[in-house]
């Protein structure tokens, strides 16, 4: 029985020793990241029936168990990967937010500066100072666009750099996991399948660290290894086999790094960016690039493109100081088209901005399957399917076509070819000044309008060969017959004569002041310098005309109605066929027409008319019509020319449109340029409105990420505290355990001492 007590004491001593060692192990690893406290699991050694009953045989240590809660660990991993993603996203977007919202470094001051200078030009269109101010403000705006874009480009470069370093880190952790898997399998096999707790903690800690970079999912294996998957299920470690990741340039955008599997030294398999969006700092980087940076850079580019295009278009509708049609103020970036690296050698596509107002901030891809072309808007995955006959095709303000050599003009592509189209990506980077000469700024309008405010003698001497000179022409409106005309024809002879047609009496006053009246139709002897008067028209004729020379007067009296005509404006269609020098469009009011309206000019030829009424409705009058119905306030548009007539004209009142030949002090086009500041030139908003939307969007997203991140970190802290309260080392608790184990050890020693004393007594009795 004593020997049995010895065994019991020895088992108790061994259990206390194991417990004390485990407690010491806990205390020494209390600050080790990822360490889970361990406990000794004991069980009874059973008993032996000695007749009177079972007598216990002591205790045994069945397991050194780590305190591990799989549910809490998975919650902690999920929260940690989300927080890491938000941290990464926020660190990038906060820099962008600070850049765009800066009241001095943002775009707003430069935009305001340009339009302030244009308003100054409208006030003083003929001064070099105001013109130079506009050029300087344009240069400042260009520099601001480029500066903002450069910093966005630096952010893009930073993302690429972080992608590369993160991939290297992930690969390093993957290698460590594979080695730990091998070590755990070996340790379990060599120790009767006992759990190697410290190796398991190390592996869990590596998984936790990896989880900060990309979302991790683990699947335990029967061997003791775990298979590790990242993103949306891409295998990274399976047993001791590692799938290596590499950062590779996109096949259609070499400046954009993506994540791929390394298959061979020359072959990779792409993993879509979206596979990493669910968590980790890598996911945060990729989400920031696709959700925010791409859109922000495209939005800035769209503002630059729309501003440059619309300002250029309006500039071309005016006249510069030399009376020449305006030219481009800015150089605007073309659409960026990049062919996929695997495209056929002959693949070709042209993409041209034809409506800057309709541009979106999305990128696009155009692919071809051998029959159909598919244009995909990447922002919302909207697809447009086309066949060759559909080209050229206009979508979202961009015209897609081939090389211009055929009809239809379809892109040259073979099955499998693809292009990336970025209409606005380079807009801010590539905008520059196209104009450097102050005289080239087109502040004047190309047309002028007028009414018969004073009498117009309408003298015509076309085709005359002599040097007859008409001077001192006047009109007596009291005797003038409206709409009448007079033609004096010169004839050589003895004497030289002039004859009036249609026949009427003429009073001739010679240079001495003597007057003679000639009967209707009579030939009037010609004397140089004499004055001829008939029907209210008077003029002096001098010089030496030649036989057959004609001097035709078509006097027009001033309008007698109250109607006025606006200054007039032109649009882009006017540039196709502007009024020739000397051309004059005359609109004569006819009160007897049904309904009353204007008789339009027949020369120069005009196209169909669109009449816009004051209530906003429109009506169309075909080209060649003889009457344009009139209601006060109507606007008439034809051939790119628009003008508005208001008030009540009288019968015969005339309204004129003709080329502007003296526009040095004209500011009408400058006013239209200034009006672009508040005009909806980008969808349903203006330049400043579009930039404000960008600033607001980035600001709101930054705040959203910050608030979400703060909440997620609070959740992570709570989960970590709960996990540590269960699995972490509590020094006070371990010190208490140490005392308890020490007492248990001392008690076990007493058992052995008692057994020794009993054995000695038995031996004494035997002697």
From TrEMBL:
<keyword id="KW-0282">Flagellum</keyword>
<dbReference type="Pfam" id="PF06429">
    <property type="entry name" value="Flg_bbr_C"/>
</dbReference>
<comment type="similarity">
    <text>Belongs to the flagella basal body rod proteins family.</text>
</comment>
<keyword id="KW-0964">Secreted</keyword>
<dbReference type="InterPro" id="IPR002371">
    <property type="entry name" value="FlgK"/>
</dbReference>
<dbReference type="Pfam" id="PF22638">
    <property type="entry name" value="FlgK_D1"/>
</dbReference>
<dbReference type="InterPro" id="IPR053927">
    <property type="entry name" value="FlgK_helical"/>
</dbReference>
<keyword id="KW-0975">Bacterial flagellum</keyword>
<feature type="domain" description="Flagellar basal-body/hook protein C-terminal">
    <location>
        <begin position="725"/>
        <end position="765"/>
    </location>
</feature>
<feature type="domain" description="Flagellar hook-associated protein 1 D2-like">
    <location>
        <begin position="341"/>
        <end position="423"/>
    </location>
</feature>
<dbReference type="Pfam" id="PF21158">
    <property type="entry name" value="flgK_1st_1"/>
</dbReference>
<protein>
    <recommendedName>
        <fullName>Flagellar hook-associated protein 1</fullName>
    </recommendedName>
</protein>
<keyword id="KW-0969">Cilium</keyword>
<dbReference type="InterPro" id="IPR049119">
    <property type="entry name" value="FlgK_D2-like"/>
</dbReference>
<dbReference type="InterPro" id="IPR010930">
    <property type="entry name" value="Flg_bb/hook_C_dom"/>
</dbReference>
<feature type="domain" description="Flagellar hook-associated protein FlgK helical">
    <location>
        <begin position="93"/>
        <end position="330"/>
    </location>
</feature>
<keyword id="KW-0966">Cell projection</keyword>
